[in-house]
User: What shape does this take?
Amino acid sequence: FNFVEEPVKDRTGFTNGRHEPGLTQFTLTKNLLGVRDIYREQNQQGADFSHYSKQYKTQSRIDRIYGNSILIDCLLQSNFHTVGFSDHKIVTCSFMMDPWHESRGPSYWKLNTSILNSDQIRRDIRDLVVHSGLQEKRGEAFLEGWEHLKFAMKRVLVAFSRQSARFKKVQNENLEKALARVKQKLQEKPSDEGLLLQLDELY
Assistant: This one.
């Protein structure tokens, strides 16, 4: 890619208002496919750069790998590796090849069914069912496949729930910070109509 999704985190020398060509259309496509930035899943705040521009003397993370909930749920780690023949680093990912043999814990679990309202999670579940091949299996093979499918669904749903919880936490933190800024300004200008309007919108 020749752009980054989060310029403040993923590009040095960032100036406020900088245009990232192609980002708007890419975001629409990414959301349509239900894929996410694998590195960012494990590194919510930190930054590691994959490219150095000699011309502008800046660093950026323009080399990325994307995956859906199923792939991300099997992710072990994502790393960058320097190579001598390029000004780009190699992006690598390690995945759990057979996640079904993990310890399963309790035989039942509670699902917050509201997450099924998400188009993304419904697509992920549909993909799991299609790729399970249960329609062609019979007897013991069907039973074993069904057990794997149930476990895979649980892993995907739990991972999605955790991601949603993190997203909501960040949203709430940003809202609280915005409220604090507006309230502080209102102490100086208690009759400012613009600030009062901002306060109403935040609430």
Remarks:
- The first helix runs from residue 7 to 10.
- The beta strands are 36-37, 51-53, 58-60, 66-67, 75-81, 90-95.
- The helical segments are 7-10, 23-33, 38-42, 69-73, 119-132, 139-188, 193-202.
- The mean pLDDT is 80.
